[in-house]
Amino acid sequence: MDAALKPVILTYHSISGGRSPLEISPALFVEQMEWLKAHARVIPLASLVSALAACSPAPPRSVVLTFDDGFRDFHAAAAPVLSRLGLPATVFLPTSFLGRSSDWPGQPSWVAPQPLMDWAQVRELTEQGIAFGSHSVTHPDLTTLAAADLDQELERSKGEIESRLGRPAEFFCYPYGRWNNATRQRVKQHYAGACSTGAGVVQADADPFALPRVDAHYIRSAFWFRSMFTRRFEAYVSARRLIRRWRGQPEGIYSRV
Ligand SMILES: [Zn+2]
Q: Domain 3-246 belongs to what topology?
């Protein structure tokens, strides 16, 4: 497939004015969404995974929007913009932390805990068409868990989202981007697909249970954001992945300490 046509899954965390890699300012977010509305085709994650499963290419210039952790500012700053522009999105929830803050164990020291949405807010957004997936129950590094604990994290989070929202929770997102063959196999038992934090555009043969994404932090400059769907963009994103590997860093910016 031509590089210009390959789908991109974007990862956002917090839409707020701080300077950490996890934060994109509300003003920049609006600018980015308006650019996507004009220049891309924003599709649901389910549509992209169905296309991969059917070996049929997603529409040209496809983008999927994902938000990790369910921060409260998604409700205040992101959802109104998505609703105004009619853009679909998936938010991944660590279910036991809803209504609390992101102070799960293993949080890197440079991350200041932020409040998460509560279930009432999540329900309200479900009515507006936002999709919710699982980001586990307690946001652990799944690769360190015993099999029974791993199953708990996968089953209980899915069950709680589905019973509280009355909608299927089809997709999973690995906390800290940490997964291995064992976790992937268990995730496959319960979900239709899963997002990783490995940087990349979505190739035609991408693994639906370890989907690469592009962190919004990497492309916060208008130059890189607007290079989306070019070979230059694909090379840049691959380079970010290789640099992390070369430094011996885990994939994704949000690595467990
Ligand atoms: Zn997370």
A: TIM Barrel (3.20.20)
